Amino acid sequence: MHKIAICGGSGYTGAELLRILSLHPDVEITAITSEKSAGKTVPEVFPHLTAYKHLVYEPLVNEKLLSKADIFFMALPHGASQIAVDYFFSKGKKVIDLSADYRINDPLVYEEWYKLPHQKTETLAKAVYGLPELYRKDIKPASLIANPGCYPTCSILGLMPALKAGIVDADSIIIDAKSGVSGAGRKSDTAFSYCEVNDAFKAYGLGVHRHTPEIEQELSSIAGTKMVINFTPHLVPMDRGIVATIYCKLKKDMTTQDILDVYNQAYAKEQFVVVLPEAKYPDAKNVRGTNYCHIGLKVNKRTNTLIIVSAIDNLVKGASGQAVQNMNLMLGIDEATAIKSLALFP
Amino acid sequence: MHKIAICGGSGYTGAELLRILSLHPDVEITAITSEKSAGKTVPEVFPHLTAYKHLVYEPLVNEKLLSKADIFFMALPHGASQIAVDYFFSKGKKVIDLSADYRINDPLVYEEWYKLPHQKTETLAKAVYGLPELYRKDIKPASLIANPGCYPTCSILGLMPALKAGIVDADSIIIDAKSGVSGAGRKSDTAFSYCEVNDAFKAYGLGVHRHTPEIEQELSSIAGTKMVINFTPHLVPMDRGIVATIYCKLKKDMTTQDILDVYNQAYAKEQFVVVLPEAKYPDAKNVRGTNYCHIGLKVNKRTNTLIIVSAIDNLVKGASGQAVQNMNLMLGIDEATAIKSLALFP
Amino acid sequence: MHKIAICGGSGYTGAELLRILSLHPDVEITAITSEKSAGKTVPEVFPHLTAYKHLVYEPLVNEKLLSKADIFFMALPHGASQIAVDYFFSKGKKVIDLSADYRINDPLVYEEWYKLPHQKTETLAKAVYGLPELYRKDIKPASLIANPGCYPTCSILGLMPALKAGIVDADSIIIDAKSGVSGAGRKSDTAFSYCEVNDAFKAYGLGVHRHTPEIEQELSSIAGTKMVINFTPHLVPMDRGIVATIYCKLKKDMTTQDILDVYNQAYAKEQFVVVLPEAKYPDAKNVRGTNYCHIGLKVNKRTNTLIIVSAIDNLVKGASGQAVQNMNLMLGIDEATAIKSLALFP
Amino acid sequence: MHKIAICGGSGYTGAELLRILSLHPDVEITAITSEKSAGKTVPEVFPHLTAYKHLVYEPLVNEKLLSKADIFFMALPHGASQIAVDYFFSKGKKVIDLSADYRINDPLVYEEWYKLPHQKTETLAKAVYGLPELYRKDIKPASLIANPGCYPTCSILGLMPALKAGIVDADSIIIDAKSGVSGAGRKSDTAFSYCEVNDAFKAYGLGVHRHTPEIEQELSSIAGTKMVINFTPHLVPMDRGIVATIYCKLKKDMTTQDILDVYNQAYAKEQFVVVLPEAKYPDAKNVRGTNYCHIGLKVNKRTNTLIIVSAIDNLVKGASGQAVQNMNLMLGIDEATAIKSLALFP
What we know:
The structure is a homotetramer.
Chain A lengths: L1 E6 L4 H10 L5 E7 L8 H4 L11 E2 L3 H5 L4 E4 L5 H11 L3 E4 L9 H8 L6 H4 L3 E2 L2 H8 L4 E3 L3 H15 L9 E6 L14 H4 L4 E2 L7 H13 L6 E6 L6 E8 L6 H11 L6 E3 L17 E8 L4 E8 L3 H16 L15
Helix pairs in contact in A: 1-12, 8-10
């Protein structure tokens, strides 16, 4: 049994790790941290996590935590994560960081968007971007995983085959993304209170969302050319789920079926990516609670535009599920262990 | 007191006309039709419409209805509306058609998208597209109003000042629109049942939605050049509201504030269009139950793209409220009569 | 034009007063207070209240406010309201208090449930409980109105005819009430964040909710005997609305229609109370945004129990709408001015 | 591997069986029926059930189905289920019936409430009511399980310890129950469309709901005396979940903690029943997607009333999860196989 510590376990991604790992046969949660919930049992904070009656939140004290686990899931705010991740990594532990701190390769780009310098650039250079569909080979032997953001996971999986195949104009990409409310985290904020969000819909962060450089970094790497994109997030009155509607100019005349063929081939061996048949499009509800990414697409002949729709659960494939997928890869066990569940529908 | 008949009054737009007109001092509803609800009182079908205890649904028999009213609101399915509208119009009545039948000027375009020939092309030629912000002068003396679609109203109001000012590339328009569920009408359809739509989000009708040619027609007319656009609708788990996120390439370098100035000037005299200050964007909830259109915008310098966000209530400014606004104009009374309510928030 | 001040105007009841009064022909809002929003215009805090561009929040300074208005709506937290209400009342202003501070006649009962002594018992003795259906005659000449709580309004209207008619056992009353989330106010609290409340349902405050003594006081007064009741509130994932399901033992054999007759007679002259026909029951959505109370009922012959279902909008008939109704009565104008709107459905 | 057939697999309980059984290591779905979806694969009907690409719906032809499976889950409408259940049972198959047809022991009571005669009373006499917490010993050797209704499961688990201990007055029981919309099944019905149910709340079926006699039968059996209850269901705008708030008069003076002790002892060995500590009450969201029942309770000293709040997921513990629990018991394997998942929160 591998011993697991979760640092920052009183938010939604922490709770989701506990939910998912409760079904994992090869691991045991030996420590969980939270400053504000220290001293409480897990079900006192999350009454749905009844399987963890004996697990008690403790404050994060690196030295005390070190010996308690082999694998560290870090769900701390960015900035704080830089230091804690570096500590456990430098002590030889396997670390999976769910914050943004180790995702951006270029420390200057990180500083530009996160308004913080990166203090651990040597460690940063060793981090692997944990998107298995793109970096599986690198993830397996890695000790430090930068677990991708939710919007980037959804966007990159949606665009990867088209960019790899070189069929779309890399200058033309528009990603219009819509997220459920849990993407904002678990916090006391009137803006995310029920009455403000229910029966509502709005755009936010136009042109300034921090997932933009992360998406651009990976798309650029896939396309082999530096890309700048339009990325617009929106808030949907639902708990979970991201749907990205992506617009790209086609370089040449192709049918929807032509491009579906490209996608089906690209993802033929990927068990968590489902390419839908022509005229079918993803629904966030069909991936709710799962590690799946559903992709549908359509060529609009009138405008010569490829429209890709990609959907994931932001807390699973967009966070904790993908973190467990990465862990499974690092442990050399079945990649799908504990994340095979089908969607909770309805 | 003007006498009003509502043809097709058991759907959401019919009920919304009744709700709005209950506060109108100058009109009286003298007839309402519905085949399936014939014989029932209004509150038997819509218990919230308690003010209409004595109004009884009747089947639509043109000849019987003719003498009962001066103004006819038509909320029939497209196709059926062609004939009924033509009848009342030809008899000298004022007609406001909430269907799509008289919106598309070119009968061939209508037939291409609606899969039906237009049988009343002479009458079609006399219809005025009822978007007051664009055609107020024509609406006042008109006898037949083609009340605009919900997506078109939201999209056209969002784009009009930019297109008129000639600051965006007319070939580059992408409209990514999101609608509440009432846009689908009141019907028995598993696809719109609570459990399928709640906590869900999806795109639909990619490249084939029937509001596309209506939007293109009006945008082309504004821009003075034939335009073809990308229009993608999505279904949001909320009752009402449309938010359109619109992407356009800027022709020259402009700031967000430059363009806000253009919009503020364009809409200075429009009481139902609110241009939000920089860094504020519309929320569907802020126009819920109202005839307002809220518009926010942002220039993305990195991509030289203007992003416009426009929001309306699909049942009010996108249907019944705009219909009443048109009626007020036709009657020569205060344009805002009965549609001044502020949003129900929360 | 009567001049209106709203003290405590940055919460939902304050915003709702602004929404409702925007349609009132006889009043003008001349001041609105909020400590945390002081200096901001109303639409900066509530973008839907576009009609109040020139109204600016100010801190509550009794002396400064005094000369600005004739009528004071007080939407302050309990405790704070005691003092401020007393001030404006003692200066000869008309005051409508939306807090609980002047609702409980007996200061000891107030102290027991609110954990605060009542410091203005002389003024308390002059307050009129502002339920027009019960105290219309007293409200008209009054200068201080204790505007009823949302649960009490719904519960009392539901029970009044049965208790007055003496047909139910006063010892048997169980009120199982369900409220939308706006009942909790506008605040930064994880417990009322979207993700905790959406797709959820729970009971709270069992046996200890502060509306209990208010309901008991009024029911006792109606029944002419001291009553103690079971009152259990629940939280429903909806913005607005209260539905109370009330159980009472029948004293003698009666049919549903017998009791409907009693209710119809009792409320024959009440324009805001709608008694539904047999086998129809209220839906919170049918009163959303309105000042109506809908009541349905059923005799369960098998258990000799009368089940009453009563529904209101907690922010309108349960707060701001009823406050305006009381103001209209105090001003001697049409009681329904500005609160005639039918429900926003859907 | 046991072979499983699901009869009536295009509704929510059928889909839920597929979801749950996809994680079951000892069974294989070999057939699934649906008249209207015959010929389609499972993911064509339910896109979230991607694991069943090769499973095709077929019409229900008893003779064809007989040899395909050992265990039959029946999710047919009542009436239809009588005959089909009898057929497979008489051929020696293990049958778990999710309809109501074999739950009511007395055929006359069945006929009174379901308005249908029971045609298979001999088979009815052999059915075991599949509530493991009550009938585990009988379920293990049984061949025909009448899987309990959702409201009954929630209500009976909530009341069982109190009734067994004889501490409440059996004549005083009021069950005020609230259900998510999936309880109504998957159907095309305007009454359950999104726009009618969202932001709404209502009571329905007052005094006439068909789960009443089922609850009374089991409570009477537990209490050892014939009981008649008040049962009132309500519709909550959420997908899943039932919360029952139950009122009972206490026979003698007891504290909340006294009764919690009774409940903790009664359910000490039940892994799916969680008794919450004092002052904590269940939330439907905390059991969403799980086989758990959460119970909280409170003694209201002022009225001498015990208030019990019980919550389950209507599709899992209230239907398909309990059906799998029953199957596990019948197969002699770990009772919790495939139903151990913790709740999807948020």
